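Design a sequence for this backbone.
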């Protein structure tokens, strides 16, 4: 071949020249490096951590690729020929696409000056990438006097389609969308080529397996060590250069694994970790990667139990490839749950826990694999490809596996790739297991928290409620905040909010005990101050290391009043319906629950129908570095904001006060609209505790329901009232019995007496006259119950009303 002018280029020489190691660099619109390949680190001496984020001009001697003063559209610097690389440093990168540029430059190296060939492509599109630079060491192409970088249509070379498919191999590791966009522009602007004469060009393809720079360094090391080997001759059958090349290939794969390890596991989020693990291998190591996980791992249910078999369900959680968009979507969709059949590479890998390598999938094997699956034809996708299936293991248990495939035309997987893939899977398995354990712990914490938070009835007699709970951003997401609403005798409602000091499982467990105690004591109808006194005694018995704040309020919709006691909690906000003004209630603060020996005062507050009471924990109003008074003022302001509904009012408060990352504590919010019950919807009577008063009670109830227009409810209500009043007259040690009817969305009936003994269900024999009254009540009433009062007890029932 005429090395200086023209002449044919032998095919073998052409292939050797076109397969060169490449440094791949991508910069954004600001001129800062966003991608930096391992080849760039080897060629220019800077590692990825040192290069990403730095100006491109500080790292690469390819100034002609950048925007220079006086060259707004980027045409002058190329000028149809190579750049010397000696121009002044540019201020930035063109924002709009222009012409591609190429040139030669000189760069310093440990061994001296290196002659650099480079190609630069201006990029356009929605992504942040704005300039792609490919660079190669010209000294890796010895024996030629003329080697220049050039651009040529990829169709000008043999096997143009295969050449286009190989192009993603030289790009930095990024998703398929970005790769496809960049590949399309590279093919449009010109395929990178080497011009070895005035008439011959060779397409550049990336040498990943044993890069040419590795061969060159190995040859240099071999030459320097040649004199030393004369004293110790090499063993027969072990060529020194081949041994060096083998070691170099191993180092290259270790370098790949180290880079992958640094790119995965950046988050404990299981879904994000899966995407990182799958995308790490494409396109550098493989053209297709699909990750499958066991259902227990994906659901965060704990460690999988036992080895997998044909019944094990696997979820395809992510697929990454550099094929055309949509090619894999229908046949191997993400999110599919599937049990893999026997006698397939996938089943073999997951059962044995060892990698399965198929250098090339022929038609016969493709037919056999595809035949094991129903309603899908895998043959067009896998025929002719090289396949490697590697297990994702942790603690010797297979959590999942990855299917890796290379397209026809790329070097098939070999034994060294099997080792590399197994090591990649081993590292990925550990990262996935960490994410799995974190997901499992979060699920446990969320389940515990949800189980301790009540499912409140949004509407009780004369009172509507709405709630919000936000877990804290601290690790574990479990806190001691709680709220509650308890139905009380006399159509009243108890409203509770509390906060156990501290965070974590211990605080949540303490919160559960206190919440249960409040519900139990609320059913005893204790005054708010006495209830907090008893709660403080309980906290003392549970342990002196726990403190909690608590606010307990009882709303009486008939008397239109609130009775409130406070144990060290932030005061509630009362929004008046008359004028829309909001204010903090002035209550005695009291000491937190658990201090011991401190009295709690009960305060009575008059309210009007339509007023709203807002109770919350301090996590909503406390912000680090800010006075809590500021947060309370913001709470008052946001609570007074008009809203279409209670839920909308809660959302308004959360949006106004939830400060995102600055909020570390959990938040409990309880809002109650105090609707009241009109006097005309309440009727009450008092009877002597005598048997002949029972028919009179039934008659009064029938007449009242008729006056309310509820005649259809009268028969059932008469029978229920007769049973409950008759039970009080017959069994209670009392002089008089009280009866009250309250009309809301249901009919509430309350019968009171001075006897503290609660009634219970009895097992009456067939010949006994009494003992069946409460069973009749339980069968006919919507709901019923009995509770202590300060003077005795109340037996109540609710009856569903059928509206006319």
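Sequence:
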């Amino acid at each position: 071949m005429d090395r200086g002018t023209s002449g044919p280029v032998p095919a073998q020489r052409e292939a050797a020249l076109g397969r060169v190691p490449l440094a791949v660099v991508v910069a954004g619109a600001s001129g800062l490096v966003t991608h930096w390949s391992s080849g760039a680190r080897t060629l220019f001496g800077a590692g990825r951590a040192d290069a990403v984020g730095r100006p491109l001009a500080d790292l690469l001697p390819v100034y002609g690729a950048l925007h220079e003063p006086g060259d707004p559209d980027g045409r002058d610097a190329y000028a149809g020929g190579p750049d010397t690389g000696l121009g002044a440093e540019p201020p930035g990168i063109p924002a709009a696409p222009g012409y591609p540029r190429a040139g030669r430059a000189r760069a310093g190296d440990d061994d001296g000056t290196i002659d650099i060939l480079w190609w630069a492509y201006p990029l356009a599109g929605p992504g942040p990438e704005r300039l792609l630079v490919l660079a190669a060491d010209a000294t890796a192409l010895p024996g030629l006097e003329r080697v220049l970088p050039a651009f040529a249509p990829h169709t000008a070379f043999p096997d143009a389609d295969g050449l286009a498919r190989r192009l993603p191999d030289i790009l930095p590791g990024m998703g398929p969308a970005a790769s496809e966009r960049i590949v399309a522009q590279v093919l449009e602007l010109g395929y990178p080529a080497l011009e070895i004469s005035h008439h011959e060009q060779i397409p550049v393809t990336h040498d990943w397996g044993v890069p040419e720079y590795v061969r060159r360094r190995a040859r240099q090391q071999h030459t320097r060590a040649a004199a030393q080997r004369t004293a110790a001759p090499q063993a027969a059958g072990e060529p020194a250069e081949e041994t060096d090349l083998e070691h170099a290939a191993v180092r290259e794969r270790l370098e790949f694994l180290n880079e992958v390890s640094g790119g995965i596991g950046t988050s404990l989020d299981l879904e994000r970790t899966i995407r990182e693990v799958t995308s790490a291998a494409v396109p550098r190591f493989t053209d297709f990667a699909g990750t499958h996980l066991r259902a227990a791992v994906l659901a965060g249910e704990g460690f999988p139990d036992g080895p997998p078999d044909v019944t094990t369900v696997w979820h395809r959680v992510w697929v990454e490839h550099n094929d055309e968009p949509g090619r894999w979507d229908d046949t191997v969709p993400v999110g599919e749950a599937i049990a893999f059949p026997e006698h397939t590479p996938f089943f073999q890998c997951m059962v044995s826990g060892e990698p399965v390598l198929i250098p090339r999938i022929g038609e016969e094997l493709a037919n056999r694999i595809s035949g094991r699956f129903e309603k899908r034809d895998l043959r067009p996708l896998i025929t002719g490809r090289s396949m490697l299936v590697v297990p994702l293991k942790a603690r010797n248990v297979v959590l999942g596996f990855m299917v890796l495939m290379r397209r026809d035309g790329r070097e098939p997987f070999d034994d060294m790739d099997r080792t590399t893939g197994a090591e990649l899977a081993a590292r990925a398995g550990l990262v996935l297991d960490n994410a799995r354990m974190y997901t499992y712990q979060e699920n446990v914490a969320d389940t515990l928290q949800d189980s301790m938070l009540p499912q409140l009835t949004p509407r009780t007699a004369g009172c509507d409620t709405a709630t919000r709970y936000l877990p804290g951003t601290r690790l574990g997401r479990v806190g001691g905040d709680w709220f509650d609403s308890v139905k009380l005798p006399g159509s009243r409602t108890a409203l509770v909010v509390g906060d156990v000091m501290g965070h974590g499982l211990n605080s949540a467990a303490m919160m559960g005990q206190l919440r249960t105690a409040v519900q139990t004591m609320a059913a005893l109808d204790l005054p708010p101050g006495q209830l907090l006194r008893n709660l403080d005694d309980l906290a003392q018995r549970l342990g002196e290391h726990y403190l909690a704040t608590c606010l307990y309020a009882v709303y009486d919709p008939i008397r239109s009043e609130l009775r409130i006691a406070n144990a060290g909690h932030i005061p509630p906000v009362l929004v008046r319906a008359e004028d829309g003004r909001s204010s903090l209630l002035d209550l005695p603060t009291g000491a937190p629950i658990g201090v011991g020996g401190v009295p709690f005062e009960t305060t009575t507050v008059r309210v009007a129908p339509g007023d709203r009471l807002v109770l919350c924990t301090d996590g909503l109003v406390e912000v680090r570095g800010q006075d809590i008074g500021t947060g309370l003022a913001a709470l008052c302001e946001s609570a007074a904001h008009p809203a279409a509904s209670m839920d909308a009012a809660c959302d308004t408060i959360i949006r106004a006060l939830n400060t995102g990352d600055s909020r570390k504590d959990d938040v409990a919010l309880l809002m109650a609209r105090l609707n009241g019950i009109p006097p005309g919807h309440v009727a009450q009577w008092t009877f002597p505790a005598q048997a002949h008063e029972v028919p009179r009670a039934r008659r009064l109830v029938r007449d009242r329901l008729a006056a309310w227009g509820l005649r259809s409810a009268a028969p059932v209500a008469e029978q229920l009232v007769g049973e409950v009043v008759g039970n009080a007259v017959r069994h209670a040690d009392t002089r008089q019995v009280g009866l009250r009817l309250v009309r809301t969305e249901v009919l509430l009936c309350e019968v009171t007496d001075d006897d503290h003994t609660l009634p219970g269900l009895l097992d009456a024999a067939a010949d006994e006259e009494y003992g069946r009254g409460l069973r009749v009540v339980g069968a006919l009433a919507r709901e019923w119950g009995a509770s202590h009062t300060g003077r005795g007890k109340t037996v109540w029932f609710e009856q569903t009303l059928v509206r006319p």
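The domain at 680-800 is CATH 3.30.565.10 (Heat Shock Protein 90).
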